[in-house]
Amino acid sequence: MAQDLKRLKRIGWGVRSVFALGIAASLAGNVLHASDNVISQAISAWSPVALLLAVELISRIPARRGALSAVRLGATAVIAGIAAWVSYWHMVGVATRYGEADSSAYLLPFSVDGLIVVASISLVEIGGRIRTLTETATEAASVSEPAPTPADVIESKSVYTNDDTWGPETSAVPVPTVEVAPAPAVKKTPVKRVTPRPVSAEKVAKVAAKMPDAPVSQIAAKAGVSVSTARRHLAALRVTDASPSAPLPAETPALAAA
Predict the structure, then answer these.
(1) SS3 letters for 76-141?
(2) Residue 220 pLDDT greater than 70, yes or no
(3) Is 0.70 topped by the overall pTM?
(4) What is residue 1's three-state secondary structure?
(5) First CA to last CA across the chain, in angstroms?
(6) 216's torsion region: left (phi>0), alpha (psi -120 to 50) or beta?
(7) Using an 8 Å Cβ cutoff, are 111 and 21 in contact?
(8) Is the separation of the CB atoms in 249 and 215 below 8 Å?
(9) Hey, how many other C-beta atoms are within 10 angstroms of the C-beta on 100?
């Protein structure tokens, strides 16, 4: 199918060249027959140019079946008839002017117009066959290739990371590793709790300081505590050596007597 398509395209260019040759011959006859001014030559050259453009349009642009296609073909036929009629008499006049006999002068334009008609029909036919082969090849390719499933589309999708864009991260300057020595353990010294001395002990200590020779009963009465409480506080003062005065010698007999 691909080989047929290439061959038809080559033939199409050859037919287009033949068609252009016929248009050039008709154009030359029209220009030579016109007066020696640009406007007259342009008017005489218009009908072959219009036929060339019309045939190119109908050969390259596909037409659907219907009224529009018929209108297009009918308009092209009208343009071809006008161009054939005008160029025929122009070429007859040119052939007669340049020495051709009467019979040949009237028959020569038919060869040019006939070549244009054959080439234009062949060009339209080849264009239609080329479009048919192209559509067939496209349909065959679409049928042979299955449509991708959503899973295939997801798997084929590329995932870009920072390493793909910027490359793996590398450190420009190596950072030395510093080993920190463990801090020495600090031995905590237990804090001694100081028990505050009760108010009664303060009273007993003050009375004993003022009355160092008094017995325990008198100190207890003066301090407003019991004898046992006074005796206990006085013993503690002697052990800790916290009394404001030294122990009295007279206190010992009193304790013994008590």
Answers:
(1) HHHHHHHHHHHHHHHHHHHHHHCCCCHHHHHHHHHHHHHHHHHHHHHHHHHHHHHHHHHHHHHHHH
(2) yes
(3) no
(4) coil
(5) 142
(6) alpha
(7) no
(8) no
(9) 16
Rounded to an integer, what distance in angstroms lies between the CA atom of residue 203 and that of residue 171?
Answer: 79
**pLDDT (tens digit per residue) in 74-107:** 898 899 899 889 888 989 988 888 888 888 888 8
Coil/strand/helix, residue 8: helix
Single out the residue of 72, 74, 105, 79 nearest to residue 23, CA to CA.
79
Q: How many percent of the chain have pLDDT more than 90? A: 6
92, 101 Cβ separation under 8 angstroms: no
CA distances from 205 to 94, 216, 247 (A): 161, 12, 12
The CA-based dihedral angle spanning residues 108, 109, 113, 118, taken in that order and rounded to the nearest 10 degrees: -10
Per-residue pLDDT tens digits for 187-213: 666 665 655 667 778 887 888 888 877
- For residue 171, give the 3-state DSSP assignment: coil
